[in-house]
Amino acid sequence: MSRSGLSHLDSRNRPAMVDVGAKEVTHRVAEAEARIRLPRAVALALRKSGHRTKKGPVFDTAIVSGVMAAKRTHELIPFCHPLGLENCAIEIEEQRGGDIVVRCRVSVHHRTGVEMEALTGATVAALTIYDMCKALSHDIEITGIRLLQKSGGKRDFKR
């Protein structure tokens, strides 16, 4: 750990992967969400089409892309450890007013947590929804990307 208290800096304040070799293997779980605000016309069109666009089934495609992203988080974020995820589940819920909530829940038995995998899964699923709906409008917003909870490590967290 660095003098600054940041975990990804070494004693000389240079970037470094955290050494988790001495940590205990525990069951790690994390859940994250991303919110998508659709313009009213887009929300209505999407609902009317059964959540399909010319590119295909929007929610099903977002689920697949979110899981794929969670599994490859270590390839996207430099100091994330490669993990053999035991479970990754993406849930997509349309709310009143047309907003969409994407939740990603990830679990593993390991020495390091899966917060980044959950955040990455939720975010990429939201980006997929944007990509599949942008032909209808570019006025789509992805907001509220956040960790909801994590357990199994040094400190549990629940929002």
Provide a descriptive summary of the structure in words:
The chain has 159 residues and is α+β, with helices and mostly antiparallel strands. It has one domain: 2-Layer Sandwich (Alpha-Beta Plaits), CATH 3.30.70. It has four helices and seven strands, in the order βαββααββαββ. The strands form two sheets. It has a five-stranded antiparallel sheet with strand order 4-5-1-6-7. A two-stranded antiparallel sheet has the order 2-3. A hairpin with a 2-residue loop joins strand 2 and strand 3 (56-57). It starts with 25 loop residues before the first strand and ends with a strand.
CATH topology: Alpha-Beta Plaits
Radius of gyration: 18 Å
Net shape: elongated
| Termini gap | 26 Å
Number of E strands: 7
CATH class descriptor name: Alpha Beta
Give average pLDDT, whole number: 92
Q: Which parts are unreliable, with pLDDT below 50 for 5 consecutive residues or more?
A: none
Biggest sheet: strands, sense, closure? 5 strands, antiparallel
Number of domains: 1
